[in-house]
Structures are given as C-alpha cells and as structure tokens.
Amino acid sequence: MDWTRRDNFHSRLVFWLKILLPLSALAILSTLFMVSRSLNPEDAIPYANVDIADRVREPRVTAAVFAGMTADGAALTIKAAQAKPGVSGTADAGHASDLSGLLETPDGARTDLAAEAAQLDQAARVMNLSGGVVVTNSAGYRIAMPGMAVQLDDTGLDSTGAVTATGPVGQITADAMHLGRADPDASANKPAYLLVFKGNVRLLYQPVN
Question: Is 63 left (phi over 0), alpha (psi -120 to 50) or beta?
Fold first, then answer.
C-alpha cells in the first residue's frame, strides 16, 4: 500500500510540475518584456556627432608620426597630435599641432623637441616649428625660442628668433642657436656635433659645482 501511495504522489507531482513550470517561464519572460525600455535609434550610434562633410573637406590625421634617417646617420622622429596634409599645386603645405620630437645622433647624444605647431617645406626638406619651441639635450641644456627650422635630410637645428638657455655653465641668451655637424663636409664615419650660440651672446656664469 505504501508503494502505491508513493507512486500516486509522484505521478501527481510530475503532472502539476509539467503545468506550473511552463507557466512560470512565461510569466518571467513577460516580466522582462514589460520592464525593458524601448530603444532610441538616435542613441544607437554614440559618434553620430562627427561632421563627415567637414572631415572630407579638410582631411587630417591624428597621432601622426614622421621618422627618418639623416645623411650623417642621425635618427629623427617627430610626433604630432594632429596633422593636416598640404594641397598639391597650392601654397598650402599643410600643418601639424602639438608636436614632440627626438633627434639621436651617432655619437650617442639625444635632443628632445617640443612645439605648438609645425609646417613642412617639402621643397627645402625643412620642418618649421612655431608657437614656442623648447629643446632639451643629454648635455644638460634646456633652450627656449619662438621657432625652429629642422633639417630633414641632414642634422641641423636652427632657431628662428632669440633664444634663452640654461645649462651646466649657467644662463645663456643669444640672437640665434645652431645644432649640427662640426664639419658638414667631412666624410668621417663618426661625425662630431656642436651646439653653437650666435649673436649678442650673454652668459651668466653659474656652474653647478
């Protein structure tokens, strides 16, 4: 008799579960549909505010990098937060903004550059930095100037405007500055480089030691 009661109870339990479980599932699904919010098509593309027409009219490159090797074996790398290419056949040579650069010469010296803007003169193979330029090198000098011309095919940095510098010997002011090969005509395997201040040079001698 006990086994019969158990079988009846198990049969009834299975019968009711077959009814209740599907109903519970339907109730849960209906609740999900009821609480889900409606989709707004305007929210589907978060970057829809980009003006495509403006980008087509004025193409630009973000995180642009220029890297090359000069004739004397120096490695030059210049990075820009944004660069706009020039227009062929016009006076528009293009420009770049928020620049940082690194010049590594074969003698092991490093020169870091920072500028607000730049323009590339392809014919002269020169990049003209502007908007305030700061130069720091591994010799311990920090030099500030309004602008600078950077040679791309040979090592040469020339300031445009007066310079103010601090270094191991003290404070220096001058009308111009040049960093380049000591003898551009020499064909030595390991060229020497000089940092030269020119024109009304004034030194406030303050040696570190």
Answer: left
Nearest to 169 by CA among 200, 197, 135, 191: 197
Contact 199, 177 (CB under 8 A): no
Give yes or no for residue 178 having a pLDDT over 70: yes
Judge whether 148 and 115 are in contact, CB under 8 Å.
yes
**Is the predicted pLDDT of residue 185 greater than 50, yes or no?**
yes
The residue among 197, 206, 200, 160 whose CA lies nearest residue 178 is 197
User: Which pTM was predicted?
Assistant: 0.69
Residue 140 to residues 36, 168, 170, 205, 208: CA-CA distances in angstroms? 64, 6, 11, 15, 11
- Which CATH class name applies to 60-205? mainly beta
Q: Is the pLDDT of residue 205 over 80?
A: yes
Q: Is the pLDDT of residue 186 over 70?
A: no
- DSSP helix, strand, coil percent of the chain (3-state; round to 5): 20, 45, 35
